[in-house]
Amino acid sequence: MPKESLILTNDVRQVSLLGDFVKSTAAKWHLSASLAGQLRLAMEEAVVNVMEYAYPDGVQGTIEIELFKDGQCISVVISDEGTVFDPTHVMSADTTLTAEDRPIGGLGISLIRELVDEMSYERLRNKNILTLKKKL
Question: Is 83 in contact with 53 (CB distance < 8 Å)?
């Protein structure tokens, strides 16, 4: 099973490296521009959440991103050693409310849910492990 990986720190300036990583992997794996774009956006939303919220201010942490491809799907595994957070338990944002009436947060996780076919979470060996799957 083909695999690609990237390690980032919790510095939002590194998000551009994630875009380059997805672009090069998509070319190597002959993924459509549409599929690559959806994966990139879902990954960026998840990774930026980790960068902004997983580690206390002033604490440098790492985020490992692994992509796997089998005959049926692309799996994205994002892991970090930050604060325990299970995004699968976050309620979807109520987009019927006006922006003023809607609580802050949750839109990124709702977007991830729309972009991927499956999202799962586990806490293993002091790591948050988020897995996103997109059918080919």
Answer: yes
